[in-house]
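Q: Is it fine to ask for two folds in a single conversation?
A: Yes, each is treated on its own. Send the first.
Q: Here.
A: Result:
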Amino acid sequence: MTSMIYGQDTFQCDSLNDTCLGYTAFDIINQYIIISFRGNNQFWQFIDEGLEYDDFVPLLDGKVAEYFYNSFSDIWNHGMKDDFYTLKNKYPGFSVFITGHSLGVL
């Protein structure tokens, strides 16, 4: 395995005390910077996502569900942004991959 985790950011992302989690990683050999978001990890988090799915936030030329937007923003501003820019400045020629599952496919 050539990828190494650089940072892990966990944040309470809703009123049910569910946590959202994201990782930053890098791969020296393949020259990647990786941002990954974990999907929901509890049944009630899944339900809460569904209940808030009707609320949308404008984003660029479209809209995104408010729950997902807020979850992303919380993780990003809680430390992931700093981790990403640190890696991007250290490895400016690396490709950036963003991935996740469920809640993680913001």
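Q: Second one now.
A: Result:
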Amino acid sequence: MDKIKLKRKIFKLSNFITFKRKMYFLILYMILEPISLIFFGALYFNNFNLNETFLKLATYSNDVIDAYIIIALFFGSFKFIFIDYWNK
């Protein structure tokens, strides 16, 4: 009986660690993905002034905050859901 209880505790702990890892990766993608897109946008516009590039990218959505939220949510959640990085 003790071995079964011990296995259950270990299993619950490993599930919690896996969940915690998933949350860390989600937050990481939400932060890093827009930064990388802005950098590649700078390459696209042939301009390495990142503030200017971000403003150019934001003109398509009429607001800087909307652009950041759209980029962060869409690309970050897409990678988080469809790519299984946390198990590798």
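Q: Anything structural to flag on that second result?
A: Two points. The chain has a mean pLDDT of 66. Residues 3-87 form one domain.
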